[in-house]
Amino acid sequence: MMRIRLRTLVAASGALALSLVSGCAQGGAAGSSAHTVTYWLWDANQLPAYQACAKGFEKENPGLNVKITQLGWSDYWTKLTAGFIAGTQPDVFTDHIQNFGQYADLKVLEPLDDLGIENSDYQPGLAANWIGKDGHRYGAPKDWDTVALFYNSKMTEEAGLTAEQLNNLAWNPKDGGTFEKAIAHLTIDRNGKRGDEPGFDKNNVKVYGLASNGGGFGDGQTQWSNFAASAGWSYLDKPRWGTKYQYDSKTFQSVVQWYFGLAKKGYMPPLSDYNVQSNQANTQVAAGKAATAFDGAWMISTYAGFKGRDIKTALTPVGPTGKRATMMNGLADSVTKASKNKAGAKKWVKYLASDECQKVVGRYGVVFPATKAGTEAAVAAYRKKGIDVSSFTKPVADKENFRTFSYPIASYSADMTALMSPAMEDIYGNGKPVSSLDETNEQINLILSQ
Question: Where is the signal peptide (predicted)?
Answer without folding.
Answer: 1-27
